[in-house]
Design goal:
Blueprint: E1 2-7, H1 13-24, E2 28-30, H2 31-41, H3 44-53, H4 61-72, E3 81-84, H5 90-102, E4 109-114, H6 117-125, E5 127-130, E6 136-138, E7 157-158, H7 165-189, E8 192-196, H8 201-213
Parallel strand pairs: 1-3, 1-4, 2-3, 4-8
Antiparallel strand pairs: 5-6, 5-7
Helix pairs in contact: 1-8, 2-3, 4-5
The structure holds adenosine-5'-diphosphate (ADP) and adenosine monophosphate.
């Protein structure tokens, strides 16, 4: 399965990509997570990415495209991947198609998770992530078993530096400005699957899977 998960910040992309990766036994590739790791490690890529991420802006296309190119060349992506947070610009979407075409491959679907802006703020304000493994929690809907501690690796949970009101506002503006054309790009191709991102995590997961599995699904269907 080769999927991309699209949606506004906080729409649930990472959460659903993790579940889809388990379900379809393929890697979850999150460009945001790769950047955050590079920032934590203090690499050159991390320092450059941080300059943009901390302001709520996108990391430049050339850097991001090269990163994804290298990541999907890795052997674990040979039979599929769930791309989370990429593509975020029309150029990235075009480049992804070109990369896949060179291998005589294509995307199965681009999934758009739709969510009201009010709920986006609620989700982001209460998001906590593991400082070590990146696992994601929510103070109300997905709390850790022990407050402040990651269930997976026992490390401490933190709030993402870009999950503050000012940066969230900027990320939403950028989403409408630069990522909206990606939605039309996939809509024109007939590969966009629009999914209602409301409801609990398991409900949204089942909604995605049942729609992916429905062979008779018409292109650009909404559900
Ligand atoms: P994105 O990757 O799109 O930025 P996340 O997957 O990190 O979004 O989700 C944002 C926050 O909302 C996280 O704290 C996550 O635990 C929580 N969350 C995700 N999906 C749901 C859902 N369906 N219902 C309630 N909370 C959710
Ligand atoms: P995310 O974890 O998907 O919310 O991404 C966090 C931040 O990383 C974004 O706000 C961007 O600054 C940066 N980022 C992630 N993916 C991309 C991408 N495809 N293109 C440019 N910047 C990205």
């Amino acid at each position: 399965m080769r999927l991309v998960i699209l949606g506004a910040p906080g729409a649930g992309k990472g959460t659903q990509a993790t579940l889809l990766a388990e379900f379809y036994h393929c890697p979850h590739v999150s460009t945001g997570e790769i950047f955050r790791r590079a920032i934590a490690e203090g690499t050159e890529l991390g320092r450059e990415a941080d300059r943009h991420i901390s302001k709520g802006r996108l990391v430049p296309d050339d850097i991001t495209i090269e990163l994804v190119k290298q990541r999907i060349e890795e052997p674990d992506c040979e039979h599929g991947f769930i791309l989370d947070g990429f593509p975020r610009t029309r150029s990235q979407a075009i480049m992804l198609d070109q990369m896949l075409e060179e291998k005589h491959l294509g995307l199965d679907r681009a999934i758009l998770l739709e969510l009201e802006e009010e709920e986006i703020y609620h989700r982001l304000a209460n998001r906590r992530v593991c400082s070590n493994c990146g696992a994601t929690y929510h103070l109300d809907s997905l709390p850790p078993k022990v407050p402040g501690i990651c269930d997976v690796c026992g490390s401490s949970l933190i709030q993402r530096a870009d999950d503050n009101v000012e940066t969230i506002k900027e990320r939403i503006v950028i989403y409408h400005e630069l990522t909206a054309p990606v939605l039309s790009y996939y809509e024109e191709q007939g590969s966009l699957l629009v999914i209602n991102g409301e409801g609990d995590i398991d409900e949204v997961h089942k909604r995605i899977v049942s729609n992916l599995e429905t062979r008779s699904l018409r292109a650009n269907d909404s559900c």
